[in-house]
Design goal:
elongated; 0% strand; 1 helix; DUF1192 domain-containing protein; 60 residues; DUF1192; mainly alpha; single chain; coiled coil
């Protein structure tokens, strides 16, 4: 299993051609990106919480 430092980095989101998208499609795209950002932030918080709990446990 990989440590967080050793884990392969994701390639990231593929940029879309915004010039061909309608205003409605652009708003939908923003909503999708914001949803993904929220999901990533939740995962970060969960990992930080788990790490903090582990550090507290091993300091005892």
């Amino acid at each position: 299993m990989f440590d967080e430092e050793e884990a392969p980095k994701p390639k990231g989101i593929v940029p879309q051609d915004l010039d061909v998208m309608s205003v409605e499609a652009l708003n939908d795209y923003i909503a999708e990106l914001e949803s993904e950002i929220a999901r990533v932030r939740e995962k970060i918080e969960a990992k930080q919480g788990a790490r903090s709990a582990a550090e507290t446990f091993f300091k005892s």
